[in-house]
Amino acid sequence: MSTSSPSAVPASLRRVVAVALKTDAPDPQTGRVVELCALARLGDDPPAPLEPHPRPASPAAAWEGILAAAPPDAVWIVHDADPASRALQRLAPGGREVAFADTALLARICFPTLTDYDLPALCRALKLGAPPEPAPAALCAATLRLWSRLCQRAAQLPHPLPQELTALFSPTRDGPLRAFFRAFADARRAAPALDELYGKAALPPRRQLALPEVHAPLDPQSVAALFAAGGALAAALRGYEPRPEQSAMAHAVAEAFNAGRLLLVEAGTGVGKSLAYLAPAALWSAHNEWPVVVSTSTKNLQAQLIEKDLPLLARALRAEIKAAVLKGRRNYLCLRKLLFALRHGLSDFDRAQRLRLAAVLVWSTATATGDIAECWAAAAVAGGVNDDVTCAAGECHGPRCALRARCFLHRARRRALAADIVIANHAVVLSDLAAGEGGGVLPDYRHLILDEAHNLEAAATAAFSVEVSVRHLGYLLHRLWRAAGRRGGHGLIPLLARQLERSPGPLSAEACAACSQFLGRAATDLQTLWTAADRFFAALAERLPPAADRGALRIRADRMLPSEWHAARAAKETFVAAMAAVVRGLDGALQILNRDESAAGRFEDFTLPLRAIAEELRAFMTDVDFVLRAEGEDFVYWIERLPPRFGHAAAWAAPLRVGPRLFDDLYAKKEAVVFTSATLSVNGSLAYVRKRLGVDLAAPERVAEVVLGSPFEYPRQCLALTPTFLPEPDDGQGGYAEALGCLLADVFRRTRGRAMALFTSYDMLQRTAAVLRRRMADDGFPILVQGDSGSREAILEAFKTNGAAILLGTHSFWEGVDVIGEALSCLVVARLPFAVFTDPIMEARAEQVEAEGESAFMGFSLPNAVIKLRQGFGRLIRSRTDRGIVIIADRRIVAKRYGQWFCRSLPVSVRPMPDRAELLRCIETFFAEAPAAPPPADAAAG
Ligand code: SF4
Fold it and tell me: In terms of domains, do 314 and 333 share one?
C-alpha cells in the first residue's frame, strides 16, 4: 500500500476530515441519508472518528455534531462531492454549507489514464489496500488513503503544473480544487515555462523515400520455409507447430509483393495469418528500404501486432523490425493548441471543460505518444475539450511551429518514415486517399496489407459519405462564437476581438477597426445562421413520415415534387446564404490580418483556425447543395429524424459502390495490395468480396486468390445444432423470444453458464434477456446484457474473468471477441444475420444489384449474411484446446434452400434438432465426453 511522505504534503492539506454517507435510495441525489461517518486525520495523528457524544439519534443531528466538532482549519474531503453535498444539504436545510475537495475529480486530474474513478476501482488501481465495503466508515478510511496518494502525486507534478492548475480553477467556484493545487504551487515559486516540459527526444533519422528502380524480390520458398519444421519460427517459439496453411499464405504474400498483385487471402482461424503476412512484409521492407503499411479494422489487432507478433518475428529473424503505429491527426495532442487554450482560452471554458483540460494538461507531460485516447479522464467524456487540443490539418503551423520538435504527431510521422512496418487502421488509409498528395499522415508507400478486410466496404462507405447535420455544423459555429450571458460571447471571434483591442501589435488603428467590424458582422451573422439552420433542419424533418413510422426517408431528384419540397428548398437557400455571410465576415477579417506579414505571424494562432473553419463552412455549403440535389447516380441520399435537441433531422449521401473509388485511388496507385480475413469467401468463392471491393476492376492477371482452411479440428472441437422446434424469428408475435429464452435457460444450465448469445436486434436481445432473468434467477450465473451491464470492454472483461457468465450482445459482439478457454463454451446465434432493409444504404445497394440483373437476395443480402454468420461463429473456437457447442436458433438454416449457403460456409455440419429433449441430451453428452487430447502446440491463433 502506498503512503505519502508527510513532508511532501503541504501543511494546509494535512488536517483533513473525510465524510461518507449512505442513503435509502441507490441514487444519493434523491435518497435520504440513513448513515453518516466522518473520519479526521489531523497532522500525523492516526485517523479518528469525528463522532459527537452522546451518539446522535438521527443522521441530521449527527451531521450537526460533526460540523461542530470539526477543527475550523480542516480540509473537508469526500469522494464524488456533488451528490454527497446535495444529500447533506437536504439533511440540514439552511445549515452550514461545506465546500468539499472531491477526491474523484482530483483523481481524474492526477491520474488521467485510469479507466475507472470509483473508490473501489481507485483502491485497486493505486494499490491503496482492499477495496472498501460499501459502509461509510470503510469509505471514509479509503478516502483518506486516496487523499494521501493524491497529495503524493501532486507533489511529484513537474513545475509549473501546480501553478497552471491553480490558474485553471481560479475563475470557477472550485475553491477546494484551486486551494489543493495552490498548496503545491506555493511551495515552489520559480518555475520554467510550460512548453519546456515537453522533451525534445531525438527523432529517428528520416528515411529518404525514392522508389527504387528495381525491386529486390523475395524468394517465396525461403519465406515459406521460415514457417516449416526446423524453420526460424520453430526456433524462436517453444512448442511451435508448423501449419501448412501459414507457409502457403506467406508464400502467396511474397509472390504478390514480387509481382505487384492484388491478393485476396482467406485464412481460417488459427492459421496465424498475421505472422504469415508480417514476415514477407518485414523482409520486403528490409530488402527494399520501403515501408509496408498494415491496416486493421480494430485496435485489438493493432495491439496484437505490436505487442506480440512483431517482437516474435524479430526474434525469429534475429533482426530489428522497426514498427510504428499511426492514427489519424485528430487522435494526437497538439501542444500549440493546448498552450493556446491555457493562455487565451481560459475564460472560454466552462467548469466541465476545465476539469478535462486539467486532466489533459497533467497527462500531456507524461505521455510518450500524445495519443489522446490514453487520457481516459478526458476522452471518456462526450463533448470534451478534445477538439480544442488535438491536431487538425488546416490548423497546424507545420514547419513554422515553434513546438515542432516536441510535436507528438510530427514525431509519430517521423517514426513512421523510419519504420519497416507502419500499422494504421482502414479509416486512416482511406482518409489519406481523400487528403491527396502530402495531405495525409502516412508516409509514401507502395505495399499495403488490409487485414480484417471483410470490414473494408463499410469503412470505405463511412469515409466516402457526406453528412449534413447540426452536429458537425454546431461544432464549427461554437468554436467561432457562443453566447455567454451579459458578458458577451466565448469563442475565437470574441477572443480575437479582445486581443485586437488590448494588443493590436503592428496593425494600424484603421486596420484594427476594420478587422473588428468584420468580426462583429460575422458574430451577428452567426445568430442569423443558427436560426436559418434550425428552420432548414426542421423543414427537412417535416418531409419525413410521422415519428412512429420508419425514421429514414430516401430522396432522389426525380421523386422530389416541387410542391412538397418547396419549403425545404427555400429554407436551404436561406441557410446557405447565412453561411456564406459568416464566411464573408471571416474572409474579410483574415484578409486584413494577412495583409501585413508581421501581423499575420502575430495572430497566427487565431488566423489558422479561423481559415480552417471558413474552409469547412465552404465545404459544408457544397455538401448541403450536393445532398439536397440528390442527383448523383452513384449515391444513395436520405434524411433521418433526430430529436429536436440534436437538430430535428440530418441528411446523408453515401456511395452505392465503393469499389470503383478504391480501385482508382488505391489499387491503381499501389504496387501490391493484400486483402485478408478469416471470412472473405461465400459458398467457397471469393467472387462476392472481389466484386464489392472493386478488385474485379483490375486486370485478371494482376489478381490472385487463396482460400486456406483452419488447422483447428472443428468436428472434434465443436458441435453445431439447430433447434427446428422453435418458431421462426420473424413471426412478429413475440413468441420467438419467449420460446428462445425458455430453451436457453435449459441449455445454459447444462453448459454451466459459459455462454454468449448473439442477436441482430436490441429489441430481441432485451426480450430474451427478460425471459432468462426470470427463469434463471436462482441459478447463480451472472447474466451480462449489452446496454445494461456497462461498456463492451467491461462486459467482456467480466465475462472472461467470471468463467460461468452468460453474455447477450448485438452487432459489436459478432466480431473482435477473443475468449480462449472454457469461459466461452456455448455460442448462440439467435437469428440468421440478414441486414435490415430499413437501412437506406443496404436497401439501395440491393436495388442496384437487382438493376444489374442479379437477384438482390442471392447477389447481396445472402452473401452479406453468410459472412456475418461466419464472423459470429468464429467467436467460439479460438485455440486447439477449445471445445464447445454452437446453437443456431433459426430453423431457416435447415428448412430453406438458401440455408445450404450458410451450412456450406461453416466448418462443421449443422445438425437439425426437431426434439427439445434430444437437443438437451446432445449437449449433456458433448460436455460429459472427455475431450480427445489436442495436438501439442497452440501458437498464434490469428
Ligand atoms: S506542428 Fe502542428 S500539430 Fe504539432 S504542435 Fe505545432 S501546430 Fe500542433
Answer: no
Same domain, yes or no, for 297 and 429?
yes
Pocket of ligand 1 (CB under 6 A): 334-336, 391, 396-397, 401, 403-404, 407, 409-410
Q: Return the amino acid letter for 587.
A: D
The mean per-residue pLDDT over the stretch 312-339 comes to 93
Q: Three-state SS for 637?
A: strand
In a domain, 214, yes or no: no
Q: What's the distance, Cα to Cα, between the start and end of the chain in Å?
A: 39
Q: Of the candidates 767, 768, 187, which has an alpha carbon nearest to the alpha carbon of residue 756?
A: 768
The 8-class DSSP code of residue 29 comes to T
- CA-closest residue to ligand 1 atom 7: 396
CATH number of domain containing 56: 3.30.420.10
Give me the sign of the Cα torsion angle 887, 890, 891, 897.
negative
Ligand 1 mean position, distance from CA 10 (Å): 37
Ligand 1 atom closest to residue 408's alpha carbon, by position in its atom list: 4
Domain boundary among 107, 130, 157: 157
Amino acid sitting at position 184: F
- pLDDT score for 605: 87
- Print the domain residue range for 394: 328-407
Q: Which H or E run includes 78? A: strand 75-78
* Predicted pLDDT at 643: 81
- Flag whether 181 is in a domain: no
State which of 333, 397, 406, 411 you would mutate to test the pocket of ligand 1, scoring each by most atoms of that ligand within 8 A of its C-beta: 397
Q: 391: CA distance to ligand 1 center in Å? A: 7
Q: Identify the CATH number of the domain in which residue 298 sits.
A: 3.40.50.300
Residue-wise pLDDT for 828-858, tens only, equals 999 999 987 678 999 999 999 999 999 999 9
Residue 188: predicted pLDDT:
56
pLDDT, residue 681, reads: 93
In a domain, 72, yes or no: yes
- Give the Å distance between the CA of 435 and the centre of ligand 1: 18
- Provide the strand spans (E) within 194-332: 262-267, 292-296, 323-325
- Ligand 1 atom with the shortest distance to the CA of 395: 7
Q: What is the mean pLDDT of residues 195-222?
A: 73
What is the residue with the minimal CA distance to atom 1 of ligand 1? Answer: 404
Do residues 306 and 448 both lie within one domain?
yes
The residue type at 394: G
Residue 732 has what pLDDT? Answer: 60
263 and 359 in a single domain? The answer is: no
- How many percent of the chain have pLDDT more than 90? 58
CA of 907 to the centre of ligand 1 (A): 51
**Ligand 1 midpoint to CA 393 (Å):** 9
Distance 302 CA to ligand 1 centre (A): 25
* CA–CA separation, 524 and 534 (whole Å): 16
Closest Cα to residue 242, out of 216, 215, 224, 261? Answer: 224
Total tally of structural domains belonging to the chain: 5
Q: Which of residues 624 and 52 earns the better pLDDT score?
A: 624
362 and 310 in a common domain: no
Our CA angle for 251, 253, 259, nearest 5°, is: 100
Last residue of one domain, picked from the residues 121, 142, 157: 157
Which pLDDT tens digit goes with each residue over 277-317?
999 999 999 988 889 999 999 888 999 999 999 999 999 99
Residues 500 and 540 reside in one and the same domain: yes
Whether the CB-CB separation of 777 and 741 falls below 8 Å is answered with no
Task: Give the residue from 302, 252, 303 showing the smallest Cα distance to 451.
Answer: 302
> Closest ligand 1 atom, CA of 337?
8
136 and 270 together in one domain: no
Mean pLDDT score of the chain:
88
Cross-strand pairs, 456: none
**Furthest-apart CA atoms within the chain: distance in Å:** 93
Same domain, 354 and 453: no
Classified as helix, coil or strand, 75 is strand
The confidence score (pLDDT) of residue 203 equals: 67
Domain assignment present for residue 172? The answer is: no
